[in-house]
Amino acid sequence: MTALEIWLLICMFIVSLTLVEFAGLLILHHRRGKRTKIFNTLRLGDPNEKSNVRFVIESIDWWAFWTFLAVFGLVVSIYWGVYLSTS
């Protein structure tokens, strides 16, 4: 495998993980009992509403964002550091 193929596999893996996280958020939102159209799904209702499900969804979204960002940054720095040092 070339370096570009490995890099593209890493990117596809991270994108697929973000899609799984988004699907989990959709499932949690639909378990609230509100059946809405897909394009309105991320509107979680009244922003002043303090429900437990809303807190869980926002917490998962916040942690997933920073986790994926940190993992991607770590993978990029390790991969390209190793690749550039060996070439």
Give a short account of the largest sheet.
Answer: none
Share of residues in helices: over 70%
Q: Count up the helices.
A: 2
Number of strands: 0
Subunit arrangement of the protein: single chain
Residue runs with pLDDT of under 50 for 5 or more positions: none
Overall outline: elongated
Task: Give structural notes.
With 87 residues, the chain is an all-alpha fold. It has a domain at 54-87. The protein has helices at 3-30, 52-86. α1 (3-30) runs antiparallel to α2 (52-86). The two termini are 15 Å apart. The relative contact order is 0.12.
Brief characterization of the structure:
The protein is an all-alpha fold and 87 residues long.
Key descriptive features of the protein:
mainly alpha; 72% helix
Topology record:
Elements: H1 3-30, H2 52-86
Helix pairs in contact: 1-2
